[in-house]
Amino acid sequence: MENLMSEGLNLMVFGMGFVFVFLTLLVFATNGMSAVVSKIAPDPEPKAKRKAPAAAPAAANNNDELVAVMTAAVHQHRSR
């Protein structure tokens, strides 16, 4: 019986060790590939954002209209 337990423990240690080594190698391989891809094709520089024009009175009307439409939709949904 003791031989069977030691074999089971031995198998468990080797199995867990193999998984740990494999996952460690996988992390290093993923980091290495990420570094290579970053050097080959770097991220593009972000374009400068344009400043938004000052809010016009028409935009305020659009917001009021949007609020009215949303309120009507919520009211209709709740009335069902």
Q: Any overview of this molecule?
A:
By secondary structure, the protein is mainly alpha-helical. It has a domain at 1-41. Helix content is 78%, strand content 0%. It has 2 helices and no strands. It has helices at 2-40, 57-79. The longest helix has 39 residues, at 2-40. It is elongated, with a radius of gyration of 31 Å.
Number of strands: 0
Strand content: under 5%
Radius of gyration: 31 Å
Low-confidence stretches: none
Task: Give the biggest sheet.
Answer: none
Q: Using the alpha-carbon principal axes, give the shape.
A: elongated
Q: Helix amount, in percent? A: over 70%
Mean pLDDT: 87
**Helical stretch tally:** 2
Q: Helix-strand pattern, N to C?
A: HH
First-residue to last-residue Cα separation: 70 Å
Give the helix/strand class: mainly alpha
Feature tags:
elongated; 80 residues; 0% strand; mainly alpha; 2 helices; 78% helix
What is the strand and helix layout of this fold?
Layout: H1 2-40, H2 57-79
